[in-house]
Amino acid sequence: MTTVNKSDKDRVVIFDTTLRDGEQCPGATMTFEEKLEIAEMLDDMGVDVIEAGFPITSEGDFQAVSEIARRSKNAVIAGLSRAHPKDIDRCAEAVKFAKRGRVHTVIATSPLHMRVKLNMTPEQVIETSIANVARARNHIDDVEWSAEDGTRSEMEFLCRIVEAVIKAGATTVNIPDTVGYTVPEEYTRFMRNLIERVPNSDKAVFSVHCHNDLGMAVANSLAGIAGGARQIEYRRRRAADRMHRQRHRRAGRQCRARGSRDGHQYSKRRVSLVEQDRHHHADAGVETGIGGDVVSGAVQQGDRRPQCIRA
Ligand SMILES: [Zn+2]
After folding, report:
1. Distance 258 CA to ligand 1 centre (A)
2. Cα 299 to middle of ligand 1, angstroms
3. Which of 78, 132, 153, 157 is exposed most, by the fewest CB atoms within 10 A?
């Protein structure tokens, strides 16, 4: 008979980013009430971590994250922040009402992203990461650091920066496959190699976050776990879709009601637009599922943020 080791070290943390990464998919914006409803559902389901939003992006997102934090029961409530002090402070402010809050800070680590997007040297990226993690730790004990475009980063550099951010206080280290580039065998090797080579890797939980550009998100996520990661980040398409279907049905009913008053032609045209929009949402989903749900979202267009982050 197989003995199941249930120690915390072997436990896989379930991190749901439907409300952050999922919402960044084109056309998948949710209302304040929809976000609260989904967060409550996820908390009741026993999800370990709920990434509730990206507080610096708008007052609305800040309010949603704050309210979800206030209402949280068991789940850790996380917010995303870029590698800027203001982002981190705003994020910490939003999650502070949670029983357990987390600040998640992301910075790009691949040569291409550092050079072209950040216009920073690798040394500057290390220094900035240390400063941001330390700043976040001054606010809160639970800090996640993400290496955007992690799977296209150089291993030597990644080992150095991961060791540095853990030393600075990062409790979770996330290595996203930001552009959906990796394959399972490679990701297993990559995570194993990283965890083995970073001297203080036992002080943090390593995390996977895969995009489904080539249909590999689920396989890659599981492969990352096989390589030693102990957190999976994903989003649920069904939760968001259910909200959208409800909204479209309401919109459709409204169009029909208006149509009966304003004339058939108007009604038909509006309902048809609503239907088209619904199909667009279905097509815009770039994820596949674990247990019928969905792993990870990706921003392909319509990014509303000041600086594109595709974590
Ligand atoms: Zn993502």
Report:
1. 39
2. 8
3. 157
Residue 140: inside a domain, yes or no? Answer: yes
pLDDT tens digit string along 55-111? 999 999 999 999 999 999 999 999 999 999 999 999 999 999 999 999 999 999 999
Query: Do residue 117 and residue 254 come from a single domain?
Result: no
Ligand 1 mean position, distance from CA 272 (Å): 31
187, 109: one domain: yes
Is pTM beyond 0.85? Reply is no
Helix axes 184-197, 155-168, angle to 10 degrees: 50
- Does 120 share its domain with 153? yes
**What is the bridge-based pairing of β-strands 101-108 and 76-81?**
parallel
Residue 178 CA to ligand 1 centre (angstroms): 6
User: Are 19 and 70 within one domain?
Assistant: yes
Distance 18 CA to ligand 1 centre (A): 10
Q: How far is the CA of 5 from the centre of ligand 1 (A)?
A: 30
CATH number of the domain to which 206 belongs: 3.20.20.70
| Domain coverage including residue 265 | 244-278
